[in-house]
Protein 1
Amino acid sequence: MTAPQPVLTAAEMRAAEDQLVDRGVSVDKLMLRAGRGAAEWVWRIAAGRSVTVLCGPGNNGGDGYVIAEILRQRSIDVTVVAPLPPRTDVARGARSRYGGTIASDARGAVLVDCLFGTGLTRPLPDDLSDLLRKLRGTHDYAVAIDLPSGVDADTGALLDERLERYDLTLALGAWKRAHWLMPGLPLMGERRLVPLGMDVPGSAASLSPRPTLSAPEAASHKYTRGLAGIVGGAMTGAAVLASEAAMRAGAGYVKLFSEHSHPAAPAGLVIEPGDLVDTLRDERIRALLVGPGLGRDEEARTRLWATLGADRPLVLDADALVVLGKNDLARRSAPVVLTPHAGELAALCRTFRITGENKVAQARALALASGAVVLAKGADNVLTDGANLRFFPSPSSWLSTAGSGDVLAGIVVSRLAMAGNPFKACEEAVWLHAEAARNCGPAFTAGELANGISSAYRSLL
């Protein structure tokens, strides 16, 4: 596994830049590094075509002047559009070294947006928003430098609701949270990192690296690979989906604890009826999942409490997250994983009286309040135990289908039964889930997604 790449807040990025300056790298040199790195990408994309660089008043605009001058020296037809004069010394210096054309408007093949960077926290003024949209409409290809102007660096929120999609976003120095968060994420197109050689604060969050999984040891048997138990409920299909996913994600043995008949269940799935408290006393159970298909009635609550009372490593998903009470986890010692989608995360925030303003803040607060590892799933998966924070590459949008969350929960409990580490289990599960979706192609069902986990596992070995 490669090392995780840091994902910084705007404040952490400023601190990292300050450290470089303290080590003797001037702000001018840092801007030159950033401009050169970005210019290499733009030069290749332009392939001799004309380029327009939209420069703002701050250091992001200064980067734009550097990019424009490098492209001009390489015989690219460059026009700078600068609606505001530079307001920092380094940006003024960069503009003074640019020897090309500065205009109020332009048409061309490639637009480079250097209007605003990570420091923007308020909506774009109407005139600048209109200019940005006009330029985007008169260019075939658009590149954002660091972030699209109008996206909040820390939350991914859109500060301008009229933003249009870019083809490429070049992150300068380090990833920012917005590069991996909705709703800004889909506007960025491809994302690439331009290194600047900076030190990163030790508290930084990170982008999850692609994991390398392993085959079982030669002497393994079904119990050494882990027995994963899924607690079923009134809606049988979801529990079967989760069970099928768990069977293919590495656990050696999967049991479905259910009082219902399951005619569509795979032949290899053991379905065990009977008193749930008694069946969960089996010491060989390494991890449990409850929630998919559980229901929300009194019987569902009884089954949830029985599962909580077993005090085994536990994944809570779907209905279990809605039924869960604020104090239900208080007496447990075994690790717990919560896997909410956006609606379930909102319900858990009400249960635990959390008032975070965005997904990351809510997930971290929930992890701290509950003592659980939280995988806040969706188009932007966020994983946290309150201290550590992971972001993930964007998965296939075809995962937006009923049952895909049940499949993910099944993968998580399978990995938890194998390794026992809840954070690692979630991280590997997100990758397996995304890889299975990629292998399935377009328009798959949740059942096809579960069937695709084996091939996803093979690609991660």
Protein 2
Amino acid sequence: MHDRSAIATALAARIAAAHRVLVLSGAGMSAESGIATFRGGDHGLWARFDPQALATPEAWRADAPLVWGWYRWRMAGVRDAQPHAGHRAIAAMASRAEIAVVTQNVDDLHERAGSVDVVHLHGELFALRCDRCDMRAGEPPPRVDAAATERETPPACVCGGRVRPGVVWFGESLPEAAWRRAVAHAGSSDVVLVVGTSGLVQPAASLPGLARRAGAFVVEINPQPGFRADEVDLHWRDTAAHALPELAAALDAQLAEASG
């Protein structure tokens, strides 16, 4: 099945009949909003910056102002980015079907588009917390025209610790509660849409297989396949911003026809 309209119609029928749908999104989804991916070749963040110097607990202990300044630069970029049509399509479909989102992205684009049930496997950029007592902290004022390597002293917590980004750094474990919710969603969904993820980052990459073994129909939406053919039931070669609005429109048409 290669025709986009036919794919959208057939998949919309599955979603309309599904008890639960899971969307697993990765960096490719945010990239369409202008947020740089980590592994995007010459344009990826790790092609320009050293992850060991910026995204590890050791880097934080060695030079917290450098790490904090870099993440504040990333926060400013994410704040400037806007949800695209794919983000909005997921939120729209969630008003017509039971849809949960599990994302590897640390931005808040799904939420800003209107999605409510969102699980962040790798943490949340703006969910700041203390590095000592783990208490949540409010977001500081946005940076304006700051360079990526401009140091900035992290805010102090009332306990004497330092406020850090709420992301999962290399060498840290995933948030246990988020992982449990992701596994539960994967095991109980009838349809899984894997959108904009390479399938290389574990343990998130294991979720489509878990869902498929539990009986789910797994669809990969990506211009280039990241998962093997035997790991998914259908590969839709398109971007999230194109495919998901078409899917949402097909779902609307099917539900309207069923109710008319």
Protein 3
Amino acid sequence: MGSSGQFAVVVDDDESVARAISRLLRAAGITVDTFTSGTTFLDRVSSQPAYRPSCAILDVCMPDIDGLEVQQRLTGMSVPIIFITAHDVPEARDKALKSGAIGYLRKPFNTAQLIELVRGVMSS
């Protein structure tokens, strides 16, 4: 993905989940980049200053850096965050939303809701 134009990123350590979400978004006409670790995504953002997704869809629980840490490191970059998780931990949900996440969806999530959130960010 280039650094121009609107696009979303999906960051999930489960490759099959990352691919499925990417396919879903692409089918809805949304350009997507996929990362299987928070570290890889953050490395890309820091090494290419012009690389700014319109939206980041983050898994909460990842082995290297969890989604909440990725969100914290993106503070100040104006990247809207949507969390997805298989584990609905109220403390994580509260922290994510208090830190500015625009959505927090539990797997399996409502696909129409995810597409609506991403489109809402991209149209604003």
Protein 4
Amino acid sequence: MQRLWRIVLISAAVLASVAATGFGMAYSLGAFAEAGRFGAVPGCGVLEPATFAPVVAAAKVESDGDNCTATDGQVQVNVGYTLVTKRGTVGGPELASRYLTAVGGGDTETLKGVGDQAIRQRTQAIGAPQIISMRVSNLIVVLSVVNLAGGDLPGGAEDGLVKVATAVGARLSA
């Protein structure tokens, strides 16, 4: 009877070590890394002209591949997507978060309640563009607003772009 118990215990120990080795190999190959919600970029179909109303009242929405533009001839809002896929043991959402953290810095501000994570950058270029980069799971969405005439942005455009980004983030999160 003791011999039978020894065989059972040794067999259980061998099986446990094989299982632990298997799980360790699967982890090291990234089997447990979160891929993220998005397998492809959503395109411009998720953007309605009303989404851009806080910046461009009568927006004409056009698409060029995965990039979308809404303009009234004077002010233009651009939306671009970048899909981040998992690499090794690091999931897509984590890599996207690391990217935004690396991009954020001196002239950026963190925006709360916009997507899963968002930053705003103000530039000193012609047309006074403002850029919001946000993350929704493993998707990075970059929104920018610019005055096509080259002057300052119209009043309310900066806050309006935050409203547009919030609406896009909510739409993508749904």
